[in-house]
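As promised in the previous annual report, we have extended the structural survey to additional targets. Below is the entry for Small conductance mechanosensitive channel.
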Amino acid sequence: MVAPQSIPQRLQTRTDTTAQSGPVGEAANRFNNAFSDGLRLFLDGNWEGLYDHLTSGALYLLGLLTERGLQSLAAFLLLYIIYRALYLASERALDRSDSIEPGLQSLLLKTFRVASFFFIGTVVLDQLGVNVAVLVGGLGIAGIVAGFAARDSLENFIAGVTVLVDKPFQVGDYIEIGDQYGQVDEITLRSTRLRTVRNRTMVLPNTHMITQELMNHTRRNVLRIDVSFGIAYKEVPDEARAALLSLFEGDDRVLTEPAPSVVVTEMADSSVNMALRFYTRNPDQEVPLRWEYTEKVREKLREADIEIPFPHRQLFLDEAKAL
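The corresponding structure token record, generated without further manual editing, is:
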């Protein structure tokens, strides 16, 4: 540091009489006073005094930055080492956990990373003499403004956290939401991606996933498949039942317990409506099995000479009134 005697008298007197308010206030006061004195020396044409003034100011600034810079660097290195150790330990612990979804693991690690770097940055700036309270207040106001501007994104983010924590479905599950059906390919904080039976990817906002009625076809170990059909009123339901239950012989995809069944579901206008019900453990086979057995039901009823009616209308004309 430069001895007080080497600093111009006017600069020394001014800095001694200026009220100090912490490191930031002291630095600001010194800068203002040094600038004023330097400008005055320049206008007076006192080039020797201006040279001494600039030299002493530069040495003071270099000493200040060196001292605070070393403190800030030491604080950063120490806190970063602690952060890396905690991050790696948390990552290994989450990898060993079977109860936490990969999406939630990623969210927790990202949250820890952001919070850690915010804390490290705050400590480093404080060591440099920055008024952290004012900075945090400004960031808070900016965060509120950004929150209003990105309201939909924040809603989807919160909905994504809800999905990851509540677990109404997981990656690989077959779900039905609204009129959409497919397998969950990916769950992110903003959206959920489904692969439909047409092998297309559908992206649904997470707010949609928590506000709409959702059916999970995979959550249970056993899945029931219904194939609806109708027979004419003249036919006997037991005959249709016996014919259709023989379809499952040798099909290992269909469970024998619970056993398949054929039930009457409705006495409709043109037919006796029935349903072939059977069970499988593999949700991947739900749609293919339904399609396959829908065709088999039709062929089996035709083979058994059981009529499959269709809606029709008969018109009877009164010839006398028509004339």
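The beta strands are 174-177, 180-187, 191-196, 201-205, 214-216, 223-231, 261-267, 272-280. Confidence is low (pLDDT under 50) at residues 1-21. These points will be discussed at the next consortium meeting with the crystallography subgroup.
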